[in-house]
Amino acid sequence: MKKTIAFVTALVAAVFILLTVVVTAVLYHGVYEDNVKVTLSEELDILSYLYETGEDITAIGGRNGRLTIIAPDGNVLYDSSSSIDTMENHSERKEVREAFIMGRGSDERQSNTLSIKQIYEAVLLSDGNVLRLSKNTSTVIAFFSMVAGPVISLVIILLILVVFIAAKASDYIVKPINALDLDKPEENNVYDEISPLLLKIARQKNQVREEIEDKERTRKEFEFIVSSLSEGLVVLGKGGRILSFNKSAAALLKEKLEDNKPFLACLDSPEAKDVVLSAFDGKDGETSFEVCSKIIELSAYSSRSGGAVVLMRDITEKSERERMRKEFTANVSHELKTPITTIMGFSELLANPNIEREKVTDFAYEINKEALRLRDIVGDIIELSSLDEGYENEIEEIDVKSTVSEEIGKLQHKAEENQVTLENRVPSSVTINGWNKVFSDVISNLLDNAIRYNKKGGYVKVDAKENNGKVEISVSDNGIGIPQDSIERIFERFYRVDKSRSRESGGTGLGLSIVKNGVERMGGEVSVKSSLGEGSVFTIILPCHSET
Ligand code: ADP
Fold first, then answer.
1. pTM (predicted TM-score)
2. What does the pLDDT look like over 152-190, one tens digit per residue?
3. pLDDT at 140 > cutoff 90
4. Residues with CB under 6 A from ligand 1
5. C-beta pairs of 302-309 under 8 Å, 24+ apart in sequence
């Protein structure tokens, strides 16, 4: 821009300088020529006057020009520059002819060289002759060639000056433009002419900023939603390459995902690969597969851009729950079938009219035993289901010592039958937060087990202590103990270490499941330590009662 300003200014200046020189020269030359003509005319007047007074003008006539005297027939009588013998007749010369006719005449003629012009003026004398005086003047071209040297030097100096000034001026003009702060266009105060432009830039800048902020907000919202999705999300481009994925997807596929990597290379399951490939053919689908002992459900959807979107979710727990539910249902039917079959068998026998009298009592006893068993199983199942569905009663303050005493009271008879002593060693101040009914069932089941899986002369002790806002309650016995390889499984539904002993002693296989579920529902946890033949300690940790 600076160069353009300097160049244009220099060019304009050069044109103006040249025009000025030419016009001045032409005007000056005109004035100069007029002066020559006036002088010529005045000198001719003086010479003609002198001639008329009888002076010999030939002595002075040629000093300031060429003096010629022409006879009425046109022959030259005198010429101050040439010999009259060589001179031709002048009657046809314009100035001479005009002088003979009108008393005075003039003419201008170019000499053989372009640089000289001759000016003639002639006057008719009283004796009939014509007196002519002529002077040489330079032509415009000659005038120019005369002043050419200094003019060109002047023009060059002027041009250098103009270029220098133009460069400085353009620097001066451009400097504030270069110093414009386009980050804050409205705050610049440079030229009025560029204010509208700055305003427009400011407006557009604001518009662009708002659009960028808007897009950024939308992007962040989208990223937030995608990253907080518990489902794994993978967006695939046309060729099946990964365009983006969220943290959950990376975690599900054990960090195998990478941007731009072909997604199929991250999958080992042929079914999952097929479902993803089908999505590229416009067919949505879903399947499940196993990765590192996790079961993942994968759904693939074709996207409008020709790629695909893959959603994955960990359904291990769901599948496990489903498996347990099926197993539970199968176990329940099995557990119910046994007493029902026994009841049916004995009742058929009872229906026989020939049955011996003493056997009736035995059969009725068996039927009653199995009916009680049936009642216990159904009761435990109902209890477990209500815990599974979620206990919605208000949390209460529970006095641990009195609940334990109550449950010990209920089981005292059974303990005596089994020759087991029960001891409540819970301090009276211990209270917990929970549900009375659930907590009573937990203690009852633990005491019941400790009595049933004990030895004659054994003991069951209940202790409790507060620790860091928690209450630790332990039910210990010196009974038969639990084999180490069964400890992991005793809280499973219907799991028993010794099926016949459990059944004989009236167990349903659900007692410890009720304990675990109940404790967990109340925000606690249960653990067990046991050594075979020496006894077991079941410990439950529950939150202390607080007034909130
Ligand atoms: P059950 O109705 O069979 O007692 P539980 O769920 O209450 O069912 O207990 C599961 C199994 O854990 C029992 O069958 C038993 O083998 C074992 N068990 C539970 N408590 C004790 C204990 N105090 N001492 C030894 N074994 C126990």
1. 0.55
2. 888 788 888 888 888 888 888 888 888 888 787 777 777
3. no
4. 445, 449-450, 453, 477, 479-482, 490, 495-498, 502, 507-513, 536
5. 303/235, 303/236, 305/237, 305/238, 306/238, 306/280, 307/235, 307/236, 307/237, 307/238, 307/240, 307/243, 307/280, 308/236, 308/240, 308/276, 308/279, 308/280, 309/233, 309/234, 309/235, 309/236, 309/279
